[in-house]
Write a structure and sequence with these properties.
This protein is an alpha+beta fold. It contains 5 helices and 5 strands. The protein has one domain: 2-Layer Sandwich (60s Ribosomal Protein L30, Chain: A). Helix 1 packs across helix 4 and helix 3 crosses helix 4.
């Protein structure tokens, strides 16, 4: 519990260090990824059409459900066939909760997706994780239909 509190406090301090140009909460927390990440729309579309590019999460959860596991199996196969590609796993949350809480939850979601991909044989060095918390909703709305689409982990291809 103390570890979680210290992590949340450190994240809060990092977020307050933003100047007036900071517009969103974005954290990258795995120093294993080398170089800049530039999304490739053609590869993103191929992944999305052949394997699916996102998994969804229950409220306040970073557990990958059975539907998500099936999607991640297809993603892992695609990534193994396209070994020259790297990926960024983006963790997202719905609008409820504080910014700090949602950034931390988005981070846990991104790491859960990465862990599954790595366990399925994708090299961890090819995967970067980032949390956007609640700053990039996929669906606008103040109801469960919108919130359920915003609690997600998205795989973006480089």
């Amino acid at each position: 519990m103390l570890k979680k509190f210290i992590s949340a406090a450190a994240l809060g301090l990092a977020l307050t260090a933003c100047d007036d140009t900071c517009t969103e909460s974005k954290t990258s927390n795995d120093g294993m990824f080398d170089g800049q990440f530039t999304p490739n729309k053609a590869d993103e579309n191929e992944l999305k059409n052949t394997a699916g590019d996102r998994v969804f999460f229950a409220l306040d959860s970073s557990n990958v459900d059975s539907t998500g596991k099936e999607t991640l199996k297809r993603q892992a196969e695609w990534l193994k066939k396209n070994a020259d590609k790297s990926a960024e796993i983006q963790g997202h949350c719905d609008e409820r909760g504080t910014t700090e809480y949602n950034v931390a939850l988005g981070e846990r979601r991104a790491h859960a997706v990465k862990k599954h991909l790595v366990n399925l044989g994708v090299d961890a060095k090819r995967i970067k994780t980032v949390s956007f918390g609640k700053e990039r909703p996929a669906v606008e709305g103040n109801n469960e239909a919108a919130w359920s689409q915003n609690r997600r982990g998205v795989t973006v291809v480089n």
